[in-house]
Amino acid sequence: MKNYLKFSNSKKIAAGLLSAGIAGTSFGQTNELPNIVLVFTDDQGYGDLGCFGSENILTPTIDSLAENGVKFTNFYVSQAVSSASRASLLTGCYPNRIGITGALTPNSEKGIAASELTLAEMLKEQGYATGIFGKWHLGDQEKFLPLQHGFDEYVGWPYSNDMWPVTYGNKPKINSKYPKLRLIEGNKKTKVFERIEDQDSITTILTRKAVDFINRKASEPFFLYFPHPMPHVPLGVSEKFADKSKYGKYGDVIMEIDWSVKQLVEALKKNGIADNTLIIFTSDNGPWKNFGDHGGTTAGLREGKGTSWEGGHKVPCVMNWHGKIPKGLVINNLASTLDILPTLAEISDGKLPNHTIDGQSILPYLFGDTSKNIRDEFCYYYNENELQAVRKGDWKLGFPHVYRSYTNVEPGKNGLPGKYNFLESGLELYNLKSDPFELNNVIDEFPKERKQLQILAEKYRQELGDFLTGIEGKGLREPDYNYEMETNISHLAVGAKVQLFTQYNKKYSGRGAQGLTDGKIGRPAFKDRSWQAYYGNNLEAIIHFDKEQSFDTVIVSTLKNEGSWIFLPKEIVVSFSTDGENFEVLEKITSDKFQSVNGNVKYHAKISKPARAKSIKVEAINIGKCPKGHIAEGKPAWMFFDEIIVK
């Protein structure tokens, strides 16, 4: 079996350790591959562990791991929302690079592309047994599930535990927006969760599965990925920990997670493999603060989940490798979940993919060598592909954008959400070393630093794109979809002349006027080049035939992605003319009558009425402004179209 640290790297790190005065550390001198246990919690804040300052929540097991290992105080997720964060952890890529952003909903039309290399696939190539027990949230269709991305075993939920037909509060109501929440084992759906109280058992169920995996795989190298569904709301905690915390039910949940980690540690010790196991504990993003007492804390960091402020991106991280790395290390250098894949690749002698990734190995940090900042840059993306801030060293530059805020609003209580406040930031500069809470905007005081960060931002825009400035990005890759793309469909309007009376946005041209009848159907992602966009204005187009045609169906294909300000038209009006000048309305159809296609992203406005015409006019009425309560309230709304189909 290969050494788990290359000799050249071992010498380099050893030199760093000697220069740092760290002695007695043994590494890279065994042929035994280390086991890897990666615990990933959901919506846990930076301040929700004892070792990160919590005085009300007891976490003795995790605190012990930190005391006897490494604690990272400047550790970041790539995007402060679930699916995007998880995609980065498993691929080492910014999520927008690989087309996974936001939080995927049930029946999602996309997932991680098969061409991407995941942690599990990389370690499996090195002979590891791989198992995941917990929340996946990277596509719930079978082709997207863990067994198709390098895992041998999977037990858990396919998406967040609030994406099911029960709402919050003491009197649950049926919410037909989502299907029933089911446990998945392998690729099969099994146990159904009917009531909120059913979730009380989930941490215990998954912990038992994870311990069983350790017991069965103790004689071979293994990768155990344990993405806890908790403490995401609605909270669930077993009788073992109910009412045990001074912080209420949220604290109870964290205490049970600490208990869960203890079961893993004890299983490692029982099997005699604790000294050859690297344990990593971190979270997918900051706390969901509008749930008040059912949400976590940021230890004073600004805002929380779903924002590009520090409270959203900065998370606790502890790593422990008993006997291999020094005790009690505190690493203040910048690091990220992006860096876990290349770090584990170096440890296991695994091969990195040929395509670009954004992570860097931070292995020297695990041994206390902080003489060099391995990661000195970081970019903060949100929504579909908005570059909202960049960081270099201690400096962070934020760009104007609308964001949901937890300030100046009353948070919810007892499991019910409070309201968001929606604010707009300007061009803002912060020194995170002297001002970690982002209280003092010094944009006018440091023009040199501002300019450097603006240049850095442009580099990321050119590589990864930026929806706010209309730059597509040359380094983007497509996710996989759960259906085949229709590239050449046949209908009466293909090749017919299209006359536009309103102007599409040049950022999303959809190949111009003729792109609306070219027979090419766009995938349900607005970055697909088939889509044509209208920003705050209507679509008015006339299709002219060479001669009069008989038809009975007109379909207008449109897109819905409200998180990216893309709304369905308020109404679509189809008219026809026998002379190309005088038009008669055939039918009007409002958005509530649109038909969903392949999930809840793509829609067809379908009109079925027989007629004869030489010209067909289509008018799509924009809602105008993003509605009240939307993150971009009052801003112009987008509409996207890829084809007008006539049959």
Describe this structure in words.
By secondary structure, this protein is α+β, with helices and mostly antiparallel strands. It folds into 3 domains: 7-21 and 30-372, Alkaline Phosphatase, subunit A (3-Layer(aba) Sandwich), CATH 3.40.720.10; 382-464, Arylsulfatase, C-terminal domain; 483-646, Jelly Rolls (Sandwich). It contains 10 helices and 28 strands. The chain has helices at 7-19, 60-67, 82-91, 119-124, 202-217, 249-270, 310-313, 340-348, 363-366, 447-464, and strands spanning 35-41, 70-72, 75-76, 110-111, 129-133, 153-156, 181-185, 188-193, 222-227, 277-283, 317-320, 329-331, 335-336, 377-382, 386-392, 395-398, 401-405, 421-425, 428-431, 480-481, 497-500, 532-535, 539-559, 571-577, 584-590, 595-597, 602-621, 638-646. A 10-stranded mixed beta sheet has the order 8-7-6-5-9-1-10-11-2-12. Helix 5 packs parallel to helix 6. The longest helix is centred in the middle third of the chain and has 22 residues, at 249-270. The protein is globular and about 85 Å long. It starts with 6 loop residues before the first helix and ends with a strand.
CATH architecture of the largest domain: 3-Layer(aba) Sandwich
Rounded to the nearest angstrom, the radius of gyration is 26 Å
Helix content: 10-25%
Largest sheet: 10 strands, mixed
Number of domains: 3
Tell me the strand order in the biggest sheet. 8-7-6-5-9-1-10-11-2-12
What is the CATH H-level superfamily of the largest domain? Alkaline Phosphatase, subunit A
Give the overall average pLDDT. Answer: 91
Structural class: alpha+beta
User: What is the first-to-last residue Cα distance?
Assistant: 63 Å
Number of helices: 10
